[in-house]
Design goal:
heterodimer; A: 252 residues; alpha/beta; Rossmann fold; six-stranded mixed beta sheet; four-stranded antiparallel beta sheet; 10 helices; 37% helix; 27% strand; B: 284 residues; two-stranded antiparallel ribbon; 1% strand
Chain lengths: 252, 284
């Protein structure tokens, strides 16, 4: 039997008076890559950001339902979002490195998590940069500002920053939408390796990307989960006509 | 030429005329001040006390007084203003208390400086028994600049991209960690610029210090914050209107004006350089 890290149950999300997510239920199995696809505005990013409570910053957003992370409801008032986000990391659509050095970007998460020993920090930074395949490009210039890196490098730095704190789940919000094909390929390669260590949920507009890397794919449309299942099945034998039409570019 | 293009040219011409008018006034003022004031400037003028009933000698105590006063006011206003802005922008949210505070800050910015002077007299000089002193004046001046420090700091914090905040929060940083280690460093150039500009204006204020500590003449430089002091804008006022022989000390008045202008200009230049330097680094 598969083990689920995240169980989303009847999730409704309202932004002001708008009903954005309409009863999403899905289970996310451990050590797999799950892709969320669907046309713009279907709510996939909203769903992703519910998982690590990023909506807390926005008082207009109201969420109903449950998201169980290892059996505990993350939406519960008593769940500490700070603790939660240390276990569920996130990489954003636009690379957002801190305006600090490359080293300090990765070090940041370690320090706020209480790592003090400088040798340990150095090892962890090196490891994370290696895992995100950035190490060879930056090992000579770790003190350089992260803002001088290319977009693709910045995004891999953000990935390194996220994995440095050793979360269990990593959420990625269209991480490659601002990257060229080569950088995209590097990120994808990295993700395929990282699923040994983490569970990955990725929002993507790029159907080919979902097909290349995802074990499971979820298709969302207008706030509803239309179809969710193994990627191969989704692409070759979709059960719903809507899914078929979307995957074949009839709308979206 | 059609009617429309004619009107367009008339419009452009009047805009250019307005802009030219502003620049002309500035140039005439600077030229006039420079012509009359610069010949007076000398090391002797900048580094000695007034002598012979202010008809000779220099303005050292006034320069010293204004400099120390401005620094002291900065030390008081900057932490308070920045802290208040951080609270408003990062923590307060959108409640009635926030709106009330914002409204208060906006209205404080519109209070005439002479009213601050009276308030400083009542609160600091008498209420808190500081006496007419450098400290009381600095406190009054700090109050006066507080609204603009708060406003510019808020603006600088608002400029920090939301993505940076989210990046830190997503790593499991607390709100305070995010503010302290990510938002503030990114906003610091804007904050510094705002603080310096606010104080360069404060340096030229006369009314708030009038009742709270500035002296007509002192024989010594202030040795403690509880001493009276001389200040450039007040000295200028005295030389121009309160002196027994204003015609004779007119050159000294111009020299004082130039010295004050230079001081303010230096502060503005510092703000400009700071901003230019950080702008290169901050690009995202």
């Amino acid at each position: 039997m598969e083990k689920y890290v995240l169980q989303i149950e009847q999730l409704h999300l309202y932004a002001g008076s708008k009903h954005i997510l309409k009863g999403i239920s899905m289970n996310i199995p451990e050590h797999q890559i799950v892709a969320l696809v669907g046309p713009s505005g279907c709510g996939k990013t909203m769903l992703l950001r519910s998982i690590n409570r990023m909506h807390d910053l926005n008082p207009d957003i109201r969420i109903e339902g449950r998201i169980l992370f290892k059996g505990k409801n993350v939406l519960d008032r008593h769940t500490d979002p700070v603790q939660l986000r240390r276990q569920i990391g996130m990489v954003f659509q636009k690379p957002n490195p801190f305006p600090k050095s490359i080293f300090k970007n990765v070090e940041y998460g370690l320090k706020i998590n209480g790592m003090r020993h400088s040798a340990h920090i150095r090892d962890a930074v090196e490891n994370s940069l290696k895992q995100s395949h950035l190490w060879d490009e930056v090992k000579e210039e770790l003190d350089k500002s992260a803002l001088e890196l290319s977009g693709g490098q910045q995004q891999r730095l953000c990935l390194a920053r996220a994995i440095a704190v050793a979360p269990e789940v990593i959420l990625l919000d269209e991480p490659c939408s601002a990257l060229d094909p080569i950088s995209t390929a590097k990120v994808e390669e990295t993700l395929l390796e990282l699923k040994q260590l983490f569970t990955i949920v990725i929002v993507t507009h790029n159907l080919q990307q979902a097909r290349r890397i995802a074990d499971q794919t979820a298709f969302m449309y207008l706030g509803e989960l239309v179809e969710y299942g193994p990627t191969v099945q989704m692409f070759e034998q979709p059960q719903q006509e809507l899914t078929y039409n979307y995957l074949h570019g009839h709308f979206g | 030429m059609t009617r429309r293009t004619l009107w367009m040219w008339v419009g452009i011409a009047s805009l250019v005329a307005c802009a030219a008018g502003v620049v002309t006034f500035l140039i005439i003022m600077l030229f006039d001040l420079g012509r009359k004031g610069i010949p007076v400037l000398s090391w002797e003028f900048l580094s000695s006390f007034p002598r012979e009933g202010m008809t000779e000698g220099g303005i050292l105590p006034a320069i010293f007084g204004t400099t120390v006063l401005t620094l002291l006011a900065t030390l008081l206003a900057a932490p308070l203003g920045v802290a208040c802005a951080i609270w408003l922008e990062e923590y307060a949210g959108e409640g009635w208390l926030t709106q009330l505070t914002r409204a208060a800050v906006r209205n404080l910015a519109g209070v005439p400086s002479i009213v601050y002077g009276l308030f400083g007299l009542a609160l600091f000089v008498e209420g808190m028994r500081m006496g007419a002193s450098l400290l009381a004046s600095a406190c009054t001046l700090a109050l006066l600049t507080l609204p603009s420090v708060i406003a510019t700091t808020e603006e600088a914090l608002r400029q920090v991209p939301r993505a940076l905040r989210e990046g830190a929060l997503a790593l499991g940083a607390t709100r305070w960690e995010t503010t302290y280690s990510v938002v503030l460093p990114a906003a610091i150039p804007g904050i510094l610029t705002g603080v310096i500009l606010a104080l360069s204006r404060a340096a030229g204020e006369t009314a708030p210090i009038l009742f709270t500590g500035v002296a007509f003449y002192t024989r010594y430089l202030p040795a403690s914050p509880f001493d009276e002091f001389m200040a450039l804008p007040y000295h200028l006022y005295i030389l121009s209107t309160q002196h027994h022989d204003p015609e004779r000390v007119r050159p000294l008045a111009y020299g004082t004006a130039i010295a004050l202008l230079l001081l303010v200009f230096l502060l503005n230049l510092a703000a400009f350089l700071l901003r230019a330097r950080y702008r290169q680094k901050k690009r995202l």
